[in-house]
Amino acid sequence: MKDPHNLWKEHLINEAGLSRIRQDMLNYDTAFITAFRGDYDDVSMCLYNPNTQDLSEEEEKKKKKKQSDRAYRYRDDHKKNLRNNKELSAYLISQGYGLKNIQGSYIENFKSVDPKKIPREVKEASFFITNLNNDPEFFDQIINLGKRYCQDSVILVPKGEEGYLYGTNMGKYPGLDQKESLGKFVGGETGEFMSRINSRPFVMKEDEEMKTYEKLPPKQRQAAKLMANRIDRQINEMELLSTIKEGDLPDYDQGGQVKLYHFAPVDESEITVDPSQFGKQGYSRREKERSSYPRSFFYVNLDEAEGQVKSGNKTLYSLDIPINKLYSMKSDPEGIVKDVRHPVYNFRNDIEWTELFKRIHDKYDGAFYSTPSMDVVVLFEPYKATKVEEE
Questions:
Q1: pTM of the model
Q2: Mean pLDDT of the chain
């Protein structure tokens, strides 16, 4: 078995920055992420591509030039990578996270045997992110951003624990929603390091102090918020339009009923899950930003329950609801999703999203939809749920 101490040598860091980053890892949840990609135009492994509109004649000419001119292709990809990293950093800082610029390199398409996807070294500007305010959705945010920017993986490091790779696209390594442990970070080595996880190079060198939203000048704060709002809309759209999970509402039909699961911080034989309590749990903060419309959240597959939701002193409850009381936002049989979507802005927080929930609630008690990692039901009406006894 590999020595986990050696696994962490893959990341690294010059001696001057070693102790600071190690201390952040001990005190906070942290992560590594970038928006850089080696082949910017290859979206075959991506869960989401915001640039799906028809290309103009001028853009078609540029695309053909890229295919035939290697130098032009490199310059164009680099320019787009820099733009995406600027957006990504603005989003991360606007969420209250600490950010340090890290210079690194890695192998894209690692383990690929496809002649069209040759493994290549990608030099990149990466970010070391610190969850300064203990946001309970920190790792979910990083994972969603990894998926939005079609990264092979992101690196997540729970406070004082082992770090791990988390796959965020459909590439072979480590694989979508798959994890690979890196072991605990152990410092003390000098110089810059180059090591490997299964022969996958990844080197980093710290080159800046931590940036935070509070340190930005007023105009930069405003610009960061504007960019963050656009990324937020794209993440919302990515979750709504996700086709990676092939299931739909009828797959959960059990004789005309659908079984729903809900975790609650109480221990009673029966509770009422009331949408009026929406937003009072820390993990639903992002959902409240998406829309203030009151709703309760349920799983339809317990294997997809997030750790932050079911952890702690939580009790599992379940209920059965007639399938005809739920609307599938995924198949959109009545065209409600299509009708509400803005032609330019798609689904903006608390605008189109709120209108969508209102329209569905006019006819249904709840809605079914999929994110890239789970199927979800939201209910707009209070429902009684019974405690699930441990077997």
A1: 0.65
A2: 79
